[in-house]
């Protein structure tokens, strides 16, 4: 699809560990970006801990040719019987925030951290809290802010 150079273009990175939840989050995000006239690409990673690595790779891939105005990060961590939940939730959030600040990128963080699958669905469902759409809206607004501060090649 041919787009204007001023059309915002985003990368959606979704974690596939909970496939159905990921698909619902992506549905909300893509609907929001389309409603705002933005374009997007999507890549998938196995789990939430892989999202920061994929984000770092995407940032590095842009050094010679900027392609993305922002990033929408989607996934879910559901508490289990061990402390693994805390590690995944905390370390992924820390790494995403570090990249967002260090690289001054526009990020919409839609990585859910929930106690139960039921809580996750309430937040993910497009007809519910639509956190995928919320994350996409945040990324879009932050991309506009980057433009306002002259941090784009436009």
TrEMBL record:
The protein's name is: 6,7-dimethyl-8-ribityllumazine synthase
Q: Which residues take part in binding 5-amino-6-(D-ribitylamino)uracil?
A: 17, 48-50, 76-78, 109
| The keyword Transferase is annotated on this UniProt entry | yes
Q: Which SUPFAM superfamilies match?
A: Lumazine synthase (SSF52121)
User: Which keywords does the record carry?
Assistant: Riboflavin biosynthesis, Transferase
Q: Which of the seven top EC classes does this enzyme belong to?
A: transferase
* Catalytic machinery residues: 84 (proton donor)
Give me the Gene Ontology terms describing cellular component: cytosol; riboflavin synthase complex
GO MF annotations in UniProt: 6,7-dimethyl-8-ribityllumazine synthase activity
- GO annotations under biological process? riboflavin biosynthetic process
Q: Which reaction does it catalyse?
A: (2S)-2-hydroxy-3-oxobutyl phosphate + 5-amino-6-(D-ribitylamino)uracil = 6,7-dimethyl-8-(1-D-ribityl)lumazine + phosphate + 2 H2O + H(+)
Among InterPro entries, the record links this protein to: LS (IPR034964), LS/RS (IPR002180), LS/RS_sf (IPR036467)
Q: What does this protein do?
A: Catalyzes the formation of 6,7-dimethyl-8-ribityllumazine by condensation of 5-amino-6-(D-ribitylamino)uracil with 3,4-dihydroxy-2-butanone 4-phosphate. This is the penultimate step in the biosynthesis of riboflavin.
- Pathway info: Cofactor biosynthesis; riboflavin biosynthesis; riboflavin from 2-hydroxy-3-oxobutyl phosphate and 5-amino-6-(D-ribitylamino)uracil: step 1/2
This protein's superkingdom?
Answer: Bacteria
Q: Per UniProt, where does (2S)-2-hydroxy-3-oxobutyl phosphate bind?
A: 81-82, 123
Indicate yes or no for the key word Transferase. yes
Q: Which family does it belong to?
A: Belongs to the DMRL synthase family.
Locate the coiled-coil region(s) and give their ranges. none
Write down the Pfam families for this protein, in alphabetical order: DMRL_synthase
In short, the EC number is 2.5.1.78
């Amino acid at each position: 699809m041919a787009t204007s150079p001023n059309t915002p273009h985003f990368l959606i990175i979704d974690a596939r560990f909970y496939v159905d939840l990921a698909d619902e989050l992506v549905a909300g995000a893509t609907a929001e970006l389309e409603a705002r006239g933005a374009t997007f690409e999507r890549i998938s990673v196995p789990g939430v801990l892989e999202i920061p690595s994929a984000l770092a790779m995407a940032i590095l891939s842009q050094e010679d040719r900027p392609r993305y105005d922002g990033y929408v990060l989607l996934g879910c961590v559901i508490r289990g019987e061990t402390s693994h939940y805390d590690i995944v939730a905390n370390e992924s959030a820390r790494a995403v925030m570090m990249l967002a600040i260090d690289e001054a990128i526009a990020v919409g963080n839609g990585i859910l951290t929930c106690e139960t699958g039921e809580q996750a669905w309430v937040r993910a469902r497009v007809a519910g809290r639509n956190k995928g759409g919320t994350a996409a809206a945040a990324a879009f607004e932050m991309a506009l802010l980057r433009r306002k501060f002259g941090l784009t090649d436009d």
